[in-house]
Amino acid sequence: MIAPNQLFDDFQKNLSEFLAKTPAADIERNMKAFMMQAFARMDLVTREEFDIQADLLARALERVESLEARLQALETNPDEK
């Protein structure tokens, strides 16, 4: 008797070989190439780049808020520095 894992592996191998010989393989390759070209044209950023920019923006906003509060304090009390 064939082990269930071996049966599944054989089925998967046979299915892969079958699909490689059909137009489905060409369609898959063409679709992958199309998607890669589309993504390349979209000027996308990686998640890491996005996270870095989000962190920089958060720090800049904190700095702006701090400076606004300082300016407000200087405007209300012009004698203090």
From TrEMBL:
InterPro entries: UbiK. Keywords: Cytoplasm, Ubiquinone biosynthesis. It comes from the Bacteria. Pathway: Cofactor biosynthesis; ubiquinone biosynthesis. The keyword S-adenosyl-L-methionine does not apply. It is found in: Cytoplasm. The keyword Cytoplasm applies. It holds the Pfam family BMFP. Required for efficient ubiquinone (coenzyme Q) biosynthesis. UbiK is probably an accessory factor of Ubi enzymes and facilitates ubiquinone biosynthesis by acting as an assembly factor, a targeting factor, or both. Belongs to the UbiK family. This is Ubiquinone biosynthesis accessory factor UbiK.
